[in-house]
Each structure stands twice: as C-alpha cells, then as structure tokens.
Amino acid sequence: MADEWLIFVDTNIFLDFYRASGESAKRQLNALERHQNRLITGDQVRMEFLNNRQRVILKSLNELKRPAKDGLPQIFSGTQAARMMAKHQDNAIKKFKEIRTKAEKMLADPTHHDQVFQTFNRIFDANTPLNLCRPKKERFAVRSLARKRFALGYPPRKAGDNSIGDALNWEWIVRCAESSEPNQHILIVSRDGDFGAVHNGTAYLNDWLYREFKDRVSKKRKIELTARLTDALKRLDETVAAEDEREEEKIIREWDLEISAEELEEIERSLDLGNLAEDCSA
Questions:
Q1: 165 within some domain
Q2: Strand, coil or helix: what is 6?
Q3: Whole-angstrom Cα distance, residue 267 to residue 156?
Q4: Most confident by average pLDDT, 16-25, 36-45, 243-252, 259-268
Q5: What is the pLDDT of residues 175-232, one digit of tens each?
Q6: Full domain range(s) for residue 169
Q7: Burial letters for 29-67: b for 16+ Cβ neighbours within 10 Å, e otherwise?
Q8: Distance between CA 195 and CA 157 in Å, rounded?
Q9: Domains in the chain: how many in total?
C-alpha cells in the first residue's frame, strides 16, 4: 500500500487564515475540506479557534488606519491634478469604510459573512473517526491521559501553561495513529512552538514527542512537524498555487518577527527584575 498522511492542523494555522489574502485562504480551506477523512480534529482546537477568532479580527481591524485627506496649498486648488488627488482620497476613504463594515459583519454574523468561519465549522462538523467531539465517550479517556502528562510536566506545553489543551491534542494524535492503518503516518502543522522548535520557517519535532510516538505507536511509522500548511496539502496530493506558498512565507516571516519581539520583551522583563533585585539587596 502507498503511504498516506493523517494531518493535524493546530489552532494557530486556522487563525492565520485571517492574515492571508482572501483567495489564498479560500483555496487552502477548500482543499482541507476535501480531505476531512484524513484530518485529525477535535473540540479542543475548535474551542481555541472560536475563542480567539474575534481577537484576531479586531487586531487586524485596529491596524487598519483611515486614509488621511491631505489638503493642498490654495494656489493648486481647481487644477486637474488637485481634483484627481481629491478623487483618489475619497475612493480610499470609501474603501476603508467598506472594509471596516465587512469586518464588523464578520464579527456580528459570521455564519453569513465569514467564509473562514463557515468552512472551518463544516470541517469540524464532519463525523469522522478522527474527530474527537461530543458525544464520543473516548474523549474522557483522552482527557485523563492529558491530565496525567500535564501533571508530570511532559510536552507539549508552553512555559507557564495552566491548560491541558496541548496535551489533549497530543494524546488524541497518538490515539488516532494507534487506530489507523500501518501505511498511515502523521504530519503536525503548527507554528507556535507547542510541538517543537521552529527556526527560519523550518520546524523540528520535540525530541521526547518523537521518541514517545515511536514507543507507543510503531518504530516504522513516521511523524513529522511542519510550519507550512502548503506542505500538508502536498502530502494530500493537492496542487498548491505558487501564490499560496508566497502568502504563507509572508505569514511565517511575520510570525518570526512577532516571536523575536516577544523574546526581546521577555529579556527586558528579566533585566528589569534583575535590576529590582539588586536595588532591594543594596
């Protein structure tokens, strides 16, 4: 039998569809929907997406600046160039208002005005063996295992994390692998470092998670981590548009910049605490 890949797409990837161009997001979401039977999904990712979706939209909306309507020296008023400039400024303000109205409709009524929301929910509504959702009773066993690994400090988990969400997702990934065919392998798509290190757009699965998977599932089965959804779509035998790959590279660069800024803030906080400690001991 030919190798097949089961795909787990982390919440951050779905939220990044709000950062991608509309056509690129639509193409990739439609491609995922065509392969619902090979997507590892569950209520945990669904909850995280729905819990953070409004925040991501509002962040983009707040970054949108109203175009300025610059004045011209009176001497140029009435000229053709001045009239053209005023027309372009009026059009820019009109488009700004249209975009803002569209975003507000997405927030108020996503069922009718948000294509990402609509397709996401169709994917997570699919009643497949790989979807851990109510009323499946096995979710209780998965939660129990997740609590145990969280209490023991096992990955995946973020520093200072107080939620078992990442642990629950991992336990479900392992259970799906255990119950799948011998020729089916696992690909995790994530960019936020939950499942391993990401450097310059390349993802490296956490060493313990790799070892654990081999021990619990099979030495012969493969598990990989990627920061690119386009990689996953290719494993699903989808043709990926060059535009979508460029769009994803842009998002990854923005992720790297955000992470670098967060790391710098953490260093600055550490320095401030160190200086405070020195002042207290002086």
A1: yes
A2: strand
A3: 23
A4: 36-45
A5: 999 999 999 999 999 988 889 998 887 899 999 999 999 999 999 999 999 999 999 9
A6: 4-46+125-278
A7: bebbeebbebbbbbbbbbebbeeebeebbeeeeeeeeee
A8: 8
A9: 1
Integer Cα distance of 146 and 106 in angstroms = 34
Residue 78 domain-assigned (yes or no) = no
Under the banding of pLDDT at 50, 70 and 90, the label for residue 253 is: confident
| The pLDDT of residue 276 | 45
CA 123/CA 271 separation, integer angstroms: 45
Number of H helices, E strands in the chain: 11, 7
Q: Give a yes or no: residue 75 inside a domain.
A: no
Tell me the HSE value of 251 on the side-chain side, using a 13 A CA sphere: 25
DSSP 187-204: EEE-SSSSSEEEETTEEE
pTM for the predicted model, two decimal places? 0.84
Residue 57 lies in a domain: no
Dihedrals phi, psi of 133, to nearest 5 degrees: -145, 165
DSSP string covering 141-184, please?
HHHHHHHHHHHTTPSS--TT----HHHHHHHHHHHHHHHS-TTE
d(CA 165, CA 47): 10
